[in-house]
Amino acid sequence: MIPQSLRTLIDETRGQRRAEWAGREVWLAKEAWGELAVSLQGAQVLHYLPAGAPDAPETARAAGASPTDTAGAPEGMVAGGWLWVTPTPQALPGAIRGGIPLCWPWFADENTADESPDRSGPMHGPARKAPWRLDAVDEHEEGVELHLSPEERLHGQLVPRAVIQANARRLHVELITEHVGETPVKITGALHSYLAVADAFACRVEGLAGATYLDKLADFAERDQQGELGVRGALDRIYRSNAELCLDDGTRRLRIARQGSNSAVVWHPGDAPPGDTSIEAARHFLCVESANTRLDPVWLVPGAQHLLGTTLSREEGATP
Ligand SMILES: O=P(O)(O)OC[C@H]1O[C@H](O)[C@H](O)[C@@H](O)[C@@H]1O
């Protein structure tokens, strides 16, 4: 579910092109394998829709529906796609709420921003607001692979880069950190996926039963997940888990695999969303994040690399 204005840009795309959306440069693809939109601010995937999905334009047309159906969607938004983007994004230099923001080189706020000099760095680190450049686009019939790096140095000793792969079966995002300095550095971070859902409070996240979690809404109290997770309101949890997850919103079963992550963050603000999003629009996302947090920080030594990844795909055997 994305803003109508972004949908229009994608509809006007044949093949690949660059355009401007909400004051940011975006890279767009509309190909036989599906659709992809990436913002160069933050190297942030904003939209992905594989061909053949029930909400893909050609499938919708075959079923007699409009591919840009606004029925039931909050104002300014259209259904379609696996990711959610707010219809009311902050102006630059603010970050875009939605898609897959890259939180780097730390996850969350000043209390956990171990890498900022005085533990007071910006929430989720500087990478998501920074300008990135597209270093390479590897295009082939089955899909596309993008390589991006920040235009400026974001850290004295660490250099990040992002790899985004999209095809008709899956979306895969990697955030790779290379240590180019002299002394060990501790990092955290996240691929802060805003997944589009029919109703956030009717979602089930499978794969976390029995896992322990830190409840950020209860001062990081440690708890056990009893049974599978049903989301019914506000929650902000860091699960100690590297398991593959499945998000079921009643209309789609999305598999979420993670690489280099032993923290799965599940977040929804309930009926008190941040100022850049209405309550109505917020009912259509659930964040399920591939993360490194205070539970599994990564110590990088000079010359070492760390890869944090996430792969979204349809569940095997499920209808497309
Ligand atoms: O509003 P943002 O800075 O994008 O952060 C949004 C959310 O991100 C994570 O999921 C955290 O666990 C939440 O505590 C936070 O509120």
Automatic annotation (TrEMBL):
**Which one GO biological process term can you cite for this protein?**
carbohydrate metabolic process
State the EC number(s).
Answer: 5.1.3.15
Entry keyword annotation includes Isomerase: yes
What superkingdom heads the lineage?
A: Bacteria
One Gene Ontology molecular-function label: glucose-6-phosphate 1-epimerase activity
Q: Which reaction does it catalyse?
A: alpha-D-glucose 6-phosphate = beta-D-glucose 6-phosphate
The broad enzyme category this protein falls into is isomerase
Instruction: Alphabetically list the UniProt keywords.
Output: Isomerase
Is Isomerase one of the keywords? yes
Tell me its family.
Answer: Belongs to the glucose-6-phosphate 1-epimerase family.
PANTHER family from the UniProt entry? APOSPORY-ASSOCIATED PROTEIN C-RELATED (PTHR11122), GLUCOSE-6-PHOSPHATE 1-EPIMERASE (PTHR11122:SF13)
Q: Per its record, how is this protein called by name?
A: glucose-6-phosphate 1-epimerase
